[in-house]
Amino acid sequence: xxxxxxxxxxxxxxxxxxxxxxxxxxxxxxxxxxxxxxxxxxxxxxxxxxxxxxxxxxxxxxxxxxxxxxxxxxxxxxxxxxxxxxxxxxxxxxxxxxxxxxxxxxxxxxxxxxxxxxxx
Length: 120
Fold this sequence. Notes:
Layout: H1 8-43, H2 45-68, H3 70-119
């Protein structure tokens, strides 16, 4: 809960200080007066306009993204990136297989050559 950018713990601290400074009787009367003042403020036209304007300002980035269709563009880019990565992986696997098969042929040729030289 935040009202006037004051958290719950801060509010408790303010009430505790008010209770100590004003005493029990004045603190209760002052708390009632402050509550009536806050209620009047939050129900006023000014507060409602301020609150709705604040909401609109917070929603601007979301609306801009929707208007620019950025979500779909990001999804398309993610999809394309995934396809490219898949192609790279497949190509890398193909190259590895070719290298391994070439190395296998070379080692087989070397072993045949070694046998021939041993025989001579």
